[in-house]
Design a protein that fits this description.
By secondary structure, the protein is mostly helical. It is built from 3 helices and no strands. It is elongated.
């Protein structure tokens, strides 16, 4: 509850993580889209498991960025 808006309950501020992930626009890179789609595993999992999912997604995105950097250094588009 918020003192400024006493009629608002905590449930009003909740957003569906699944809906947020599903509604993301494509990035233009199939690999990135597939990795980001993995975030849909978060809803329903205990908060303690979120860290491992987020670390996996982050690691895979870093790998993709590294590949893009290597391609750029080689002069490949």
């Amino acid at each position: 509850m918020d003192e400024e808006y006493p009629d608002q309950g905590a449930g009003d501020e909740t957003i569906s993580a699944e809906r947020a992930v599903v509604s993301l626009p494509p990035t233009g890179d199939r690999r990135v889209d597939e990795v980001v789609a993995g975030l849909i595993r978060l809803p329903g999992r205990p908060a303690g498991e979120h860290v491992s999912v987020l670390e996996e997604v982050h690691g895979r995105l870093r790998d993709i960025l590294g590949e893009l950097n290597d391609d750029a250094a080689k002069g490949q588009p």
